[in-house]
Design brief:
By secondary structure, this protein is of the alpha+beta class. Helix content is about 55%, strand content about 15%. The model has no long low-confidence stretch (mean pLDDT about 90).
């Protein structure tokens, strides 16, 4: 039990710190909407997302900030409840989701928006700009989906 809790805590803290450090770099060293080309597929482009995924509700007038703050708290609370009460849960996957949710929640509370800076593209196709917290949430969801649909029902 102690080992499991230590792993959960370590994953959450590591993701939160990586996200915080990378966003501080983006804020201090990148210019808003100005791309720094890393290679043919990756740019670093500072952007502020006032909405949710894919800038959903970003132009809603400001109320969405507190809606997403409350929603994030609820998601974190529900997942923490699951981690505490379900001894046979996919704790690694849930830890990734909580770590990422905390990173974006911190931005919403402190800045009023989420700091995004990773831009992936191929030719003229550009994926929406994202951050480390978004990557962690995506990894957590992929691990949960894998666990749900795999034949061996392995808990991740």
């Amino acid at each position: 039990m102690f080992k499991k809790n230590l792993i959960i805590f370590a994953i959450i803290i590591l993701i939160f710190l990586l996200d915080l450090i990378s966003k501080n770099y983006a804020l201090n060293d990148l210019l808003i909407n100005h791309s720094v080309i890393i290679n043919n597929y990756l740019n670093l482009t500072l952007a502020f997302n006032y909405g949710a995924a894919f800038s959903f509700l970003s132009d809603a007038g400001g109320w969405q900030r507190w809606f997403f703050v409350i929603f994030s708290f609820l998601v974190i609370f529900i997942i923490a409840y699951i981690l505490i009460n379900d001894k046979d849960t996919q704790y690694v996957a849930y830890s990734f989701v909580i770590g990422g949710a905390l990173g974006n929640l911190y931005d919403r509370i402190v800045y009023g928006y989420v700091i995004d800076f990773i831009e992936i593209h191929y030719n003229n196709f550009y994926w929406p700009i994202f951050n480390i917290a978004d990557v962690a949430i995506s990894i957590g969801i992929i691990l949960l989906l894998y666990s749900m649909f795999s034949n061996n029902k392995k808990k991740l």
